[in-house]
Structures are given as C-alpha cells and as structure tokens.
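Reviewers asked in the last cycle whether our approach scales beyond single polypeptides. To address this, we selected a multi-component target totalling 896 residues and predicted its structure end to end. The input consisted of the following lines:
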Amino acid sequence: MGAGSPAQPQARRMKGPEELEIIAFERGHFTSYSACGIPYWVGGDVPGRDELIARTPQEHRERSIDLRVRTEVTELDVAGQRVRARDLSDGTESWTGFDKLIVATGARPVRPPLPGIDAPGVHGVQTLDDGQALLDTLAATEGGRAVVVGAGYIGVEMAEALLKRGYEVTVVHRDEQPMSTLDPDMGRLVHAAMDGMGITTVGSTAVSKILTGEDGRVRAVATEDAEYPADVVVLGIGVQPETALAEAAGLPLGAYGGLLTDLSMRVRGHENIWAGGDCVEVLDLVSGTTRHIALGTHANKHGQIIGANVGGGYATFPGVVGTAVSKVCELEIARTGLREKDAHRAGLQFVTATIESTNSAGYYPGAALMTVKMLAERRTGRLLGAQIVGREGAAKRVDIAAVALTAGMTVERMTTLDLGYAPPFSPVWDPVLVAARKATAAVRKAGV
Amino acid sequence: MGAGSPAQPQARRMKGPEELEIIAFERGHFTSYSACGIPYWVGGDVPGRDELIARTPQEHRERSIDLRVRTEVTELDVAGQRVRARDLSDGTESWTGFDKLIVATGARPVRPPLPGIDAPGVHGVQTLDDGQALLDTLAATEGGRAVVVGAGYIGVEMAEALLKRGYEVTVVHRDEQPMSTLDPDMGRLVHAAMDGMGITTVGSTAVSKILTGEDGRVRAVATEDAEYPADVVVLGIGVQPETALAEAAGLPLGAYGGLLTDLSMRVRGHENIWAGGDCVEVLDLVSGTTRHIALGTHANKHGQIIGANVGGGYATFPGVVGTAVSKVCELEIARTGLREKDAHRAGLQFVTATIESTNSAGYYPGAALMTVKMLAERRTGRLLGAQIVGREGAAKRVDIAAVALTAGMTVERMTTLDLGYAPPFSPVWDPVLVAARKATAAVRKAGV
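The resulting structure, written as structure tokens, was:
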C-alpha cells in the first residue's frame, strides 16, 4: 500500500469535492493493497487476494475521487502543471492539468538482466498480479524444488511460504549471512535457525544465470560454481524507487534514486508537488543522511501527511530510525538504528554489546532464548542501534529501542526504563535492559 | 525478589571481601526468589518451588557474603550504627555494627482484621511458604470452590491459577471494575473477558467476614449482602511497605508508609543508609509525586544501584512511569503513566482517546482485537498515560508508551514513531500509533 492511497481520502476529509477536485492515476487494476501480505497469501496463511485489498477503486470513488485505473502517467510537465496519461485499455493519451501534484509511484523490484530471468517459473512478488502468477505456477508444480534469490525480508518470508507449500527451499544470496539488514554476527543466528527449519542457505554467492529446460521453463539457478535445481524461482532481491518520470521531469533525486522532499513531504524546491512512499528517500534520524526504505508503514504515514498538507492542514514527517521486523517460521528478527557499518559510514565511533536472555521469566513454561545486540556511541553512550533475534515476543521489543533512539536516549538511561514486567512477559530484567546494562559497561570501559 | 538480594553481589563485584565485609539478615528461609512467580507455581505452569529461587543462600555465601537466614532484625540503632537481630532458631539476640546499612525489608500483604481471617483455608500468596501452604490446601480440596479477595494483579493471576486447578472461582473486590490500576472503562473490558472465562466477579463489595464450618475451616466469604461458599480463600488485596523498624528508628516515611530516598537510593537525610525495593516510595516521573509500587523489576534495579553506590561506584534511579503488565488466561492487560483520576489529582488537564485495532494485520490468521486508551495533556499534547487490554502481543506494546512518557513525548510526535511493522506483528498502523493519532485529534479539538 503506497502513499497515494491514504493521501486521497485524507485530503478529501480536509476539503470537500466543491473545494478540491482529486484525480488519481493508477497503472494497475488495484489501488490500495498490502504488498507486505503477499508472502502470507502465497504461504496459505491468508486465504485469498481480496483479503489484502484495503480499499477498492469503488470505495475511492465513493469519496468523490476521480480514480482512473489501468491508466499510466507517461510524462510530468512541471512548468506546465500538467501530466500526460495513457489509457492502457485503448492506448489513447491525454493531458490533465493540476494545481497540486502528488507523486506516489512506489518502487520496482530489482530484476538483474540475467540470461533466463524472464523464463516461465521465475517470479517476483511485488504486486497482487505477481502473487497470483506465482500461485498458478505453484499449483502446477506442487511439492517440488524452489530457489529464492535474495535473503532480505522478502526472501526469508518467501522461503517460509514455500516451505509451508511443501517445497524443498534453497535461498541463494550475495552477503555472507542472510538478513544483511543485521550485522553478520546476528545474521549468523538467522542462518543457523533457517538450517534448523530445513531451509538451505547459500551465501556470498551471485546468481549468474537462470537455466531453462527444453520446454523453456526454469530448471535451475546457476552461480559461478554450482547449479541449484528449481521448479520455481522467486526473486526477492529488493526494490528501487520508481522515479523515471520524476527524473525526466527534473525533480531532485538522492543518492539511492529516490525523490528528495522537505519535512512536509513536499518535493524540494517545488511549492506544489509532494511525494511519498517507496519512491522517496527519508531522513534517517540516527545517521543524519537520507535512505531509501520501502515499507508500507512509512508510505502510509507519508500519505496521511501529504493528504493533510494538500488539504490545507499541517503535518510533517520527522524521519525514521530504520526499524524493521520480520519472521521466518517461529524465528523473529528485528532491527532499528544503525548497523556497525552504518555507524562507521556516518563517522560515529561506538561500542557494541550482545546478550542472551529469555522472552519470559526463565521458569515460565515455553521460555525461549532471545539475543539482543546494541550499539552505543563512544563517550556519550547514546544508543545508536539494536538488533534482536529470537522466538515469540522478540521482534516487537525492538520498538523500545526505536522510541529510545527517537528520543536520543543513552544506554545508561535505558537501564532504568520502566518496562512491563510479569513472569509470562519478561524476566525481571527485560532483555533490552540487560543489553543496555552491558552496553553501558562497554561505554565506561572504552573511556573517553 | 527484593532489593537486598541483588545489592549484595553487586556491592561484592565492586569491592572484594578484604575491603568490604557484607552481612545480610533474612527472617525467612529463602533469600532470593520470585514472588511474582507464585501464581504460576500454584496454577501448575511452574513445576516446583525451586524454579522460583534465583540464588540460594549457599550461592550468596560463595561470594563471601555472611548471610544469616532465620534471623530477624528487631531494631535499627541509627545513631549507634548497629542493628539488633534475633536468631529465630534459639531466640538469642545480639547487636551488629555497620558502617553502611541497606534497608530492604520489602512489603507485607494487607490482611484486614476480619473475623475468620486466620481460619485454615485462608491464604496469602506473598512468600514461598505461603505458596506451599496454599498448594497443600488445594491438594486436600481439589476441584472445589475458591473465592479470591481483590482483583488487582495478584487477584486476577490467582483467579487464573485456581481456574486451571479446576476450581469454580469467584473474585470479590472493592472497586466498580476489576484491575483498578486501569480506568473503569478499561477495567470493564477485563470484567467482560473474565466473565467469558467463567470467572465470576463481584465488584463494589467489601468482605465483612470469613465464615467457618464446624471443623474450624473456611466455608464462605461474607459481604454485607451475600455469602460466597468457599473451600479455599486467597487474599490478593495488595501490600504495604514493611517499615515498622525504619519508622521506629526515625527514618523518613512518605504518604504511603514507604521509606523516602534520594536519587542514589540513599535514605533522605542519612549519609550511610540506603533503602530499596518494596519498602520504599519511588518518584513518579509523570505526576512528580512519590508512590508505592511493589514490583520485582523496580526492586532489582534498586538493588543494583544500591550495590554500586555502597561499593563506591555511582548509579541513580531516576524514577518510574508506572508500567505494569498482567494476564488472565489469554487476556493481556497493561498500563503506564496516569489514569484519569491520577491526572486530576496531579493538577493536569487532559483529553482521552480510545481505539480498537488488532495485534497483527487484520488479514493475518489469528488477528485479535486490542483496545488502547491514551491520556494526553490539554494544550501541550504531552502523553500522560496509556492502557491496553487485548490478546497476544497486547501487553508489551505498553513499553512503547513507557519510553515515550520517559522522554516527555507528545502524542503528535508519537504518530510518526518508527515502530516495527510486518503483517504477523502489526497492522500497517500499530495500534499505539492509531491511539496517538486519535489523541492528537482530541488535543487539537480541545484547543487552548
């Protein structure tokens, strides 16, 4: 779900149709759905596609929004305050003028130009159409071998989904460890847990081509050294901001190709153009630089903020701290703030502390191990980042660190945070507090 | 587990036995156990008493701590820097001098002087001995009728434990709704859920006496209007600071009878006496007043801080925001900060917002409802408190609000917090964010 979808009703709440005419262009059939839910639909946890749709085109129209689906914008004329759009059903093009423009073009999956990448049986999982196509392939190859390319969030979630579908799953990825959004020492825990689930991971490896059989369908994924037989291949390599139109129109892009905005989500240097969601870069409050993070929760916030501002209200997006949570089967994975390499890159010196504790009191039935790593700034002791790998109750604990990061707290202040304690929910020292204590000791030990 | 138990090893880590002699007096047999775990032991989740013991007397002694169990301190001579203690095995008394004194006398359960309160079959659940006595009674009356007096944390946890033991459970309590640590509108949700579990709750009712049978054992609990048959009665009315010795010695007590300390946990006005755990009052950072909160997680922090300071280091306890979590069967209950009546009492004007959302994306299997209530200060929009009632994943979300309270965040700032999002863990707007949005709108609407 991008920024465009929530922006429209929010703007409509601020101003009625007599004051504000809203026209929305959408290339596909659907306007407002949870792409993050696709792995759970593919894995069978979510029964059908319609469950993932937040608002139908009809619901948008009921709010007097002139929604044009299957209509692709092909040019932005910033100076002329108009956009050119093509009706995909009949190919006709026309210009539409605007007083205010919202760019919410989202992101496109990275799809390296490898031999065989377009072969039948090779699937992305970015859109509902992608999800349906993958499900159709799975229905035809039930219980075979699957290769997932990439071991980020989408990669590991798709590995779980395919495992649930009865596939033998191999994940081939570039970095030393899966989940490279974590430091490698924490990624190693994910690796070991995936091994335990029967998911084969092959790291430090680049895919060189997709091999096809005589029928033209995929039959294997090839790297420099090996071939991994595959009845189905899922690409989970990540996404890039979809900003070709914006770039052609001369709008400002950042180092990652995303649109650059001010705090009100207005495109820098443009009074009447806003942008949000997966097509923009966001300010990272910890490193002080902009990053590209494609995540529905940010896009939704952007949409609300843009809708309020376009509607004549006032709201800002202060930035992110880089929180992300995920799971592979029973394993929960979370991170916020900076990894070691991010901190180096930002010019920050730091200490680290890693602890192991349990999600509930050790004596409570089902108490499961959790590993928490913290980065704290040298000398000041300011929290810089936290990573958590564990079982039930592990991932959402990262929110404690996310709020502390937002507030600029030191790890020493964190040691006395008043967190919820009762035996079913936490040991008497919450794992986050234990990590903060160890990080505090590390800061002291490092001295000035 | 009180403050004394962690203070000793922490002080020992700072200074060896050649520098610091540590003598510890303990009235009972056990020194370091989780009283919070007793309901789970009684309910059968925790197999045995020994699981609840964190450190045995032997473990303390191995750290060169002169631990004297079954030895009750009967007098503090502050001016003379000595304590008088009685050996409970032979009744002998003796004085022991000190350079530094730590008072960690804990709390005692409220036990109103009702007729019949000491009858066999009436149990408190404060100590391991209490827990064992209750289990012995249950073994003799398996599957009968139980009445729990009090509907706070201990009360509802014991209701669950007795339900698990096959008892028909009635909870009789004083306030309009159970869990009076919540506002009544949130307590009502707990009430309804307990009804659904088959636990009868009788509110706005005071117990007038405990009725006994011809054998002298409890047979019912009587209020002004009714009698509730009972084979066993559990008292969960709360606790009071155990400060009789401290009061007799002239140490300063607060409005709730707890010792008053400075930020280093030193008793106010006394250079060489520290106090911590359930016998002290703590600073509430939201209301600016001191409160009495008996909770193992605070006591443990106090112990660490006192141990560091007594050992020549430096640490402080900044105060609490009043976070507490609990559960009754599958229902999770959490609160932090101020209730409406606390805010009134503190002279704060506020708005409230209550929302209903789900613990995971609505389309994710097992998504369950969660209600979040927030209090925000009028005009400034500063968060004043949050309460949550829901199912799995509800309670520990209160930590987000606890950290935000600690940082003095406004509810508007909270609307853009970067919290962990993925379909198994949260809707795209975390319920806490949804509540913050509604509270922000309420602050705006209330105007100046």
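Chain A touches chain B through 63 residues (CB under 8 Å). We regard this as preliminary and will revisit it once experimental data from Aim 1 are available.
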